[in-house]
Amino acid sequence: SSAASDVYKRQDIANLNGKNIQQVTFINELNETITQLKAEKEALLPTKEEQEKDGTINGLRRENELLVEKNSGAIEEVRGTGQVHTRKRKELRDSVRFCRQV
Fold it and tell me: Distance between CA atoms of 59 and 67, rounded to whole angstroms?
């Protein structure tokens, strides 16, 4: 009877060992997959040069936006000055007409 129970115990141990080996194999495969995914992720990240280039491009975009705003202001100012000049010219023309009439 004890010989039979020893056989069962050995079979249980062998089964457990088999399951442990399967789990260890599975964990190793997972670790390999994780390592591979990390490498792929690293490859997808922008390099330092690309980041610097992006920073420069963004800086230039902002600078350009500021210049556009500044130019828009200058253009409005010139328009305003032009309107003042047009009004003064009209006033001068009117006064010249008035002088001719007198």
Answer: 12
Contacts of 46 (CB under 8 A, 6+ apart): 54
Q: What are phi and psi of 53, to 5 degrees?
A: -65, -45
Q: Give CA–CA dist 60/68, Å, rounded.
A: 12
Residues 77, 70: Cα–Cα separation, whole Å: 11
Can you read off the two tokens belonging to residue 43? 């490859």
| Cα torsion 18, 22, 23, 28: sign | positive
Pairwise CA distance, residues 74 & 66, whole Å? 12
Q: Which two tokens stand for residue 2?
A: 């004890």
Q: Which positions ≥6 away from 54 have C-beta within 8 Å? A: 46
- Give 61-86 pLDDT, tens digit per residue: 999 999 999 988 888 888 888 888 88
